[in-house]
Amino acid sequence: MRVPGFARMYTSLVFGRMANSMGSVAMVLFVLQRFHSPELAGATAFCASLPGILVSPIGGALLDRYGRARLIMVDYVVAAVTLGAIAILSLAHNLSPPSLLVIVVLSSVTGPLSWAGMRSLFPIIAPRHLWERANGLDSSGNVIATLLASPLAGALVGLFGGEWGLIASGLLFLAAAGALVGLHDPSIRAKAVDSVMRNAWNGLAYTLRNPTLRGLALTLSAYNLGNGVLVIALPVLVLSRLNSGPAVVGAMWGVMGGFGMVSALVAGRMSSIGRERQMMVIAILIGAAGTAVLAFAGNVAVVVVSVVLLGLATGPFDVGLFTLRQRRTSPAWFGRAFAISMALNSVGNPIGSAIAGPVIARSLTVAIGFAVVMCLIAGLIPMLAIPARDEAVEPSLPG
Which CATH superfamily hosts domain 6-180+196-385? Predict the structure, then answer.
């Protein structure tokens, strides 16, 4: 925190992650509460992710060319405006499913500017010898958000309705943008010798030619198929099978975040050099066990056991992933490579959520079983597809 600019950046990150976590939980609960449709909840989660994934090469090129702080602020403001629009239209009884999905798609398009921009700022602002600790804080930013914002979102939706959960998320996004005002951005800027589209294409080529980034994409895309199912399955399980309220859904995500924060800070104090792949595999297996427990949940206590295991998996997985990606990516490509890598890594989330809606409508147990299988498949990939040693971080590019 004594590194110049780091505390302000981290404050913005925590506010932004809290806003995103609150918005994600509130959005699913809002759709289930207002439209009573798991299928629409899955479609909404799909539309909230996929457009940003598709435009991530362009977002990364913009980050490398123009810096990060200002573009992160742009996305935070867009997120606040779109969440407010959904809430206002709903309160006015003018929100239809098509208009909801259109607004969610528009919000998603600028997403890479914040999630790739913020993550690529960490290895730029923090010195190299502090990367593990910085990445532990980066991971803890996610779990702090889950710990605090998810229960708050559940409580707001339960007490006042989904619209107020969305409005609160928008206000947090504005706070995140405000924390970045005046931040010195020391990003290495790519020379504007080519068009943004050409730079985006080169970034895609760099990422696909980098063996580590390619292996991470295979691992995360499979793992996140299971995570995308859980985003819908956990609320449906708590609300339908256990007959509990939105506040309990938020509390479960909060328990996951609490244990995730502990595991992230512990993992961040350990040297991960040469052990990143093993850390990821162990974490994936713990996550698979936690997901499997969820299939047998007949009461809230069993759900707690599941989310505790899922939380404990967070720290070692994130620290191993983040440091491996940073060490094996050239700093000049941080914006493009991180944006594209994170997009490829997260492509499983919207697909998993889209699959989850109709499957859960027929069998919640089958949906959870699918998530477990995808976790186990993901656990095989790091040792097979990610090189054991550092390879060149400047793979050749097409002319």
Answer: MFS general substrate transporter like domains (1.20.1250.20)
